[in-house]
Amino acid sequence: YEPLNEPSMSGFSTVESWIPYQNRLVEAIRKTAPKLTLVLNAGRWQNVDDLLAVSAHPDRNTIWSVHDYEPMAFTHQGSPWMRSWYQPLRGVPWPYGPEEAKTIVARLDRTGRNAAYAQEAAAVLTRQANDGRGSRDRVTKDFEKLARWAKDSDRTICIGEFGVDASFALEDDRL
Question: Which of 73, 30, 68 lies closest to 49, judged by CA?
Fold first, then answer.
């Protein structure tokens, strides 16, 4: 049982606001369901960095859920429900670096409302490519950090959400 998925959607915008509330939920659940396995999270959008910033709850019958959508310029390209700068992105490959970012920037969708977002998309994508966010190495390091947290905490982690919006990502890159 997962008490709350992506706490940011319910007003818990910081890890510090979520963890005490989750602790109270665990306490309340344990009164009626002492043997139920609980799926806990570090709050916000349940990303890797948030989990790395918290200690495991002392309840041993827990699994910790993480959502991994990095790099989001790839996984959420063109997604209309995301921030404006994601919307002009099309055909962002996986993996990508500075050279691929130049090609993507040159072919950003600049039609309609995306014209207003293209400059920000170009800046964010270029910065993230230069920072190595679109590299296989970055993803590998995130998963190594998760493995270390799981081992040090003696807890199980599940990747509760992981994927790519298929609208504009190329099939071979998604696979």
Answer: 68
